[in-house]
Design a protein that fits this description.
Helix content is 30%, strand content 36%. It has a single domain, classed as Nuclear Transport Factor 2, Chain: A (Roll). The protein has a six-stranded mixed β-sheet. By secondary structure, the chain is of the alpha+beta class. The termini are far apart. The longest helix has 29 residues, at 3-31.
């Protein structure tokens, strides 16, 4: 086998590993597993991790970032992510994942009911991963709400 094929196989394996790390991040959120979620982020402060939840300020450092997830998990009874438009690009030991988070969530019930109303939300996200001795770890997550309707049905504002 030529060196080019080896390189292509390595890149394909890296992309698959990054996709799996990205999926594990969302699955840990769905399960409300803070311990697993914590293990998916870069350890220590060598490279300060950061996170931007939709509508939040920038959070920096493991303490701030992981506290934010603990808060979200404590106040979210149910959450499910359907990821679409997933794209992976990489250079060296850094990988960039972009995706659309189609989120279905429900908060704690009011007046003793089983679950609060389910709400759908559309968020575009960028997740940056770094290769470590323990696999690909999250360095940064940035989620931004999708506010614009992508339907092209309304042509009144489109110049001809």
């Amino acid at each position: 086998m030529s060196e080019g094929h080896d390189d292509q196989a390595e890149v394909a394996a890296d992309i698959a590993a990054v996709e799996q790390a990205n999926t594990a991040f969302y699955e840990a959120m769905e399960r409300g597993d803070l311990d697993e979620l914590s293990g998916l982020w870069l350890p220590g402060e060598d490279l300060t991790i950061s996170c931007v939840h939709p509508g939040w300020p920038v959070l920096s450092g493991r303490g701030e970032v992981l506290r934010s997830y603990a808060l979200i998990m404590a106040n979210t009874e149910y959450i499910q992510f359907f990821l679409t438009d997933v794209g992976v690009s990489m250079t060296g030991d850094t990988a960039l994942v972009t995706c659309t988070e189609n989120i279905l969530s429900g908060g704690p019930a009011e007046d003793g009911g089983e679950l609060g109303p389910l709400v759908g939300q559309l968020v575009v996200a960028t997740n940056v991963f770094r290769r470590t001795g323990d696999g690909w770890k999250l360095w940064s997550h940035h989620g931004s709400p999708v506010l614009a309707d992508s339907d092209d049905d309304d042509d009144e504002d489109t110049p001809s």
